[in-house]
Amino acid sequence: MSDFRFAVNVLPKPGILDPQGRAVEGSLEHLGVGGVSGVRVGRRVELTIDAETEVEARATVERLANELFANPLIESYAIEWVDIRAGVGG
Amino acid sequence: MTRIGVVVFPGSNCDRDTLRGLELAGAEAVPLWHEQGTLEGVAAVVLPGGFAYGDYLRAGVIARFSPVMRAVSAFANQGGLVLGICNGFQVLAEAGLVPGALLRNRGLRFLGRDVRISAERLDTPFTALVGDGRPLRMPIAHGEGCFFADDATLDELERDGRVLFRYVDADGRRAGADADPANPNGSLRAIAGVMNARGNVAGLMPHPERAADRLLGSDDGLPILRSLVEAAAAAGSGRGSTAVKLELAATG
Fold first, then answer.
1. Which domain holds residue B235?
2. What is the rounded CA–CA span in Å between residue B62 and residue B26?
3. ipTM of the complex in this document
4. Most exposed among A53, B48, B72, B83, judged by the fewest C-beta atoms under 10 Å?
């Protein structure tokens, strides 16, 4: 068995109202920053999966992303592999 | 006396009010702990308001996987009556037992204040005793109450008569979708409550149990609870299956 670490990045789907993103965007003028648009605020979940193979680990993370981390009605997700050696684990 | 269960999740905070409201509506109300896998033979289930499991990740999503929700899903799939109030509505939506999702309020703020809703249907287990379509005044208390579904689903809900409650103004006029104080969370098509296709599971964001006694400022919520208690009693005596069939016939 090996450890595989993933990050699941969840965002509101295009077209879904994102009041947090809108509020952040609206605040940028107070920072004196212009030319920024399309701000979307989501969440990131990182996790380590102990599995025989990477394929198996990916299947697990896909399932969790689809059933738990994101609500497919309103959110999309992207799974990314995280290098455990970089020290982000545990 | 008809027994109705009120699920208690860690973080539920309207369970006592809901138990009391159901008693005022004529039921024997019993708490059902989230870790139990049976519903103790109750005639209907209410998922109360609160912040189940801290609302972590998304409101309602973690509660969805609790042992009691497996029992509630099985109960609902057999035609059992289930009502979700506020956080309970969010749990039902996450579990896919009612359509749609509850997004962050458009104004981003948690809102605790009275709203007015009107029942779109007066022939359901949740509204049969509401009487007429007059505005019902009761509180909301939520941060994620903006009802969302895609256009096709919204059209289907309207066509099939599954929009149960809408936000209205004091005169009973349907609230606008956005920036209308009568629709404070910005719900699409001013939807405050919906039903599943079979008509036995419903959710709404406002709190009928907080408007179940005049001492609370309004008892407009009581007829909703009484409707549920009466429908549950009918289901318990074997008349319920007929009611569900009639319901299906009515919604086509």
1. 3-251
2. 32
3. 0.82
4. A53
